[in-house]
Amino acid sequence: MSTIFDTFIAPPCHDEIETLYQDEHLVLINKPAGLLSLSGKNPQNLDSVHHRLVQIFPGCTLVHRLDFGTSGLMVIARNKAINAALCQQFSQRTVTKMYSALLCGHLDHDEGVIDAAIAKDPALFPLMTICPVNGKPARSHYRVVERFYHEVEQGTLLPLTRVQLSPETGRTHQLRIHCQQLGHPILGCDLYGGRLLPGTERTPRLMLHASELNFVHPISAKLINARNASPF
Fold it and tell me: Which residue ranges traverse the bilayer (predicted)?
């Protein structure tokens, strides 16, 4: 088994975490792009959602994560019992999530499903890979919101498609690699081809935002329908 070395050092994130809702059991936040969900092993990667929030809410734990470059909704448990209850909802796939994204190029179809198993790629860490043999099942839905052109340097027109993405499963990098598989990587995605088209090299961030999160409050049993509009 090959040893994996993680050389990634996160640049400083000066954006604040926005608290959207809190009670004695859980916290709903809007995570900024460019912030780790959990601190890395390297001491230079200490800053993270968890590192910041544990100062305010001692004992809080992450129920799920968003990629470093992804912004948007996260639910944080304030104690172990709430964490266990929420994790059960995620593992049973009763939590529904919706993401907003900008994809490179114009999609042919207005909606569809990407069904492609995902596996770790030790030789190319931190990349994941599509692998029908060794991969874990992964399924994502997409729906086109609009197709348009964005003017970049020297008047170049960049074709983009705004989509809503809904993952049925929660594999690492799932939406990013599934969009690449579709032939339309997420704009700004450095790992899966979102900076390869002319005019995309200077995209300021990964254009992926967790915009909806629906789950049942473990104590009140009320359905929480969290919404947070995309910043792009």
Answer: none
